[in-house]
Amino acid sequence: MKNLKKSGIVFVIIIILFSCTHDDNLEKDFNSSKSDLKNNIETNRVLNRRDLPVYSKDKLIVRYAPGTSNNTKSTLRDFYGVANFKLCENCSDQSIELWIFDGIIDIEPKKTAIEQGSGGGVEAIIDVDYEFTFGIDINNPDVGTLIDTSYFSHIKPSNDGVTIAVLDTGIAPTIGGISEPVFDTRFLYNASYGSNPNVYSGWDFVNIDHNAFDDNNGRHGTVVTSIITEILNNSQSLVHHQIIPLKVCDQYGKASYFNFLCATSYGLEYADILQMSLGWYDDGFGDFLNTIVSSLIDEHPETLIVTSAGNLENNNDIRAHYPSSYSHDNIIAVAAADKSINDISTLSISNIAWFSNYGVESVDVFSKGQYIPFLGYDMSGTSFAAPVVTGVLARLKNNNPSYTAGELKYLLIASGIDCPITFDSTKKVKYNKIILP
Asked: How confident is the model at residue 197 (pLDDT cuts 50, 70, 90)?
């Protein structure tokens, strides 16, 4: 909304300026600018309710200040009428709780009351978020089977190099079978050195289980992970790495914000890079700039986070798409280039993929995201452009282990190629670079 207000002010000023001149060329440019703005607004209207957050009517998420005692937490729950609560599974940070109330309540004034500390919680509770569901805004062909659940044989004996947490629909390590295995090496994180005996590699935050099996029909998380591992396994020099699969989306590609929040906390604790090919759009209600997940990311500036920009031809500068629209320096938002980028001979005539979101302030780079081959199918979406960048970033991290997050991001941008002149000039991103594997 702030961007729209700014745009309105700018255009009022421009109108005044043009009223004082008879320069035909300037008038032509002005009319073109008005047309571009109108087109951007029309493009952003294609969003419907299924693309926006769906809020819970009986749940809120709170975060306590460091050092808040269990007695104080219990007192606050009683005061605000909390019927039940949940903690983040297997996270060392126990300051985040999902509060469940008895029956449907008026959730907005309840959130406001907790934030204002009417029960003495203003010092003990530092953040309050709505609970909502969101998901993956893309459908792909059905691949794999429900028997690809085994994962123990893919856990590495020990961890080395770069650790990547993939927040998605999970992982199906045995997909492709013996004849066409997608994963033919040990690549999963070994969690046996940790303090929790119930975690062997990743975690399923949906079903509260150690097996983060990908039961999504399109095996979304499996495809995303395969893109990362293929880049790293085919690099000129050996790239030591391991993947932590963190299942936050159910079989239909839907995630709860609380599960996503817990997985983010978990990933920030154990991984060097977080891969997120999912998200939600700002609906003007959720106050998404000031959230617990934003605070968590802000507290871990040296952990790099790669996010997909979304697939609705949306200008994310006008209608934000999260988490890709967060302005943290350690977040890299990725748009999709079209199929021409897949072949070096057609690279010079490539363009933004027709479905890809964009934004000169909120999206950073392009990468290949259309017609990505996987077990005989072609996958498309910014979901599959983001892991290309994650793979390149992991390679840079492996080769430069002492570099800061800022230095690695600089290397990443510098490694990209400039977008050719065939790219749509009305759908740019911040650096206007294409990151190739």
From this structure: confident
| CA neighbours closer than 13 Å in the CB half-sphere of residue 7 | 13
Cis previous bond, 323, omega within 30: yes
Q: Are residues 62 and 19 in the same domain?
A: no
- Dig out the tokens for 431 from the structure: 């650096």
Across the chain, mean pLDDT equals: 88
407: in domain: yes
Six-digit token pair at 79? 């005061």
pLDDT of residue 2: 38
Is the same domain home to 222 and 257? yes
**Contact criterion met (CB below 8 Å) for 203 and 269:** no
Q: In this structure, is residue 144 part of a structural domain?
A: no
Cβ 341 vs Cβ 368: under 8 Å? yes
Rounded CA separation 83/332 (Å):
39
SS3 168: strand
- Say what the pTM is: 0.87
Q: Which of 181, 329, 206, 194 is nearest to 258 (CA)?
A: 206
Tokens of 129: 């978020």
Q: Which residues pair with 167 in a beta bridge?
A: 246, 276
- Higher-confidence residue of 380 and 197: namely 380
The predicted model gives 230-245 an average pLDDT of 95
Residue 140 falls inside a structural domain: no
Q: Are residues 187 and 96 in the same domain?
A: no
**Which domain covers residue 61, as residue numbers?**
53-135
Residue 38: Cβ within 10 Å count = 10
Q: Which helix (H) or strand (E) holds 374?
A: strand 372-374
**Rounded to whole angstroms, how far apart are CA atoms 433 and 366?**
6
Pair (164, 284) in one structural domain: yes
Alpha-carbon gap, residue 312 to 370, rounded angstroms: 14
Cα separation, 246 vs 211, whole angstroms: 10
DSSP-based helix, strand, coil % in the chain, nearest 5? 30, 25, 45
Do residue 163 and residue 57 come from a single domain?
Answer: no
H-type alpha helices, 154-214: none
